[in-house]
Amino acid sequence: MILSPKIENFVLHCGEMGSRWGFNRTIGQMVGLLVIHEQPLTANEIAESLKISRGNVSMGIKELQSWQLVKVTHIPGDRKEYYAPSGSIWDLANRVFEERRKREIDPTLSLLRDQILDGPNSPEEEYAQKQIQAIHDLLETVTKWSAELQRLSPEQLQTLMKLGSSVGKVIDLKDKLLKKS
């Protein structure tokens, strides 16, 4: 399967973004390719489109399945396995965020909690303890906030995002009103 220049450009960019999302370039390209194809693709079609080996595709599919980003489908009468994104763009974004939280934020929070419970042994560690507590509190707040966001429907999330800076203005107004009272 030959990709049009527009599609190829998108797929290559997804590959570059892959490392920022938490996986390698090939897997990023695979996600990009699957997302923009209306019909599910076979492993051979993926390999041909991306000019990579069939083995590389198999390893990539396993990784994408571990992230719950791809699903396997079958066509009646056809023995091949076909691969498609396992949900909408919003679903995929939520899964990537959730996996990154599990792989990066949760272990960091665990380490920070252990450090806080251990307590400082010197004045130097006392300052470090305060900083560790601040980092912990920030990550804990962001984690709780993101969990709330993940519970919203895509429509609710879009509405929230469209509010943009208006939220900040409402908070500023609330603060001004509280100062006057």
3D architecture notes:
The chain contains eight helices and three strands, in the order ααβααββαααα. With 181 residues, it is mostly helical. It folds into two domains: 5-85, Winged helix-like DNA-binding domain superfamily/Winged helix DNA-binding domain (Arc Repressor Mutant, subunit A, Orthogonal Bundle), CATH 1.10.10; 89-180, no CATH class. It has a three-stranded antiparallel sheet. A hairpin with an 8-residue loop joins strand 2 (70-73) and strand 3. Helix 1 (5-21) crosses helix 2 and helix 3 crosses helix 4. The termini are far apart. The model has no long low-confidence stretch (mean pLDDT 91).
Number of strands: 3
Order of helices and strands: HHEHHEEHHHH
Class derived from helix and strand content: mainly alpha
Q: Determine the number of helices (DSSP H or I, runs of at least 4 residues).
A: 8
Summarize the amount of helix as a percent range. Answer: over 70%
Distance between the termini: 68 Å
Dominant shape: extended
Mean pLDDT: 91
Largest sheet: 3 strands, antiparallel
Sheet with most strands: strand arrangement? 1-3-2
What is the CA-atom radius of gyration, in angstroms? 22 Å
Low-confidence stretches: none
**Percent of residues in β-strands:** 5-15%
- Provide the domain count: 2
Keywords: DNA-binding, Transcription, Transcription regulation
Protein name: HTH-type transcriptional regulator
InterPro entries: ArsR-like_HTH (IPR011991), HTH-GbsR_regulator (IPR052362), HTH_MarR-typ (IPR000835), MJ1563 (IPR026282), WH-like_DNA-bd_sf (IPR036388), WH_DNA-bd_sf (IPR036390)
Pfam families: MarR_2 (PF12802)
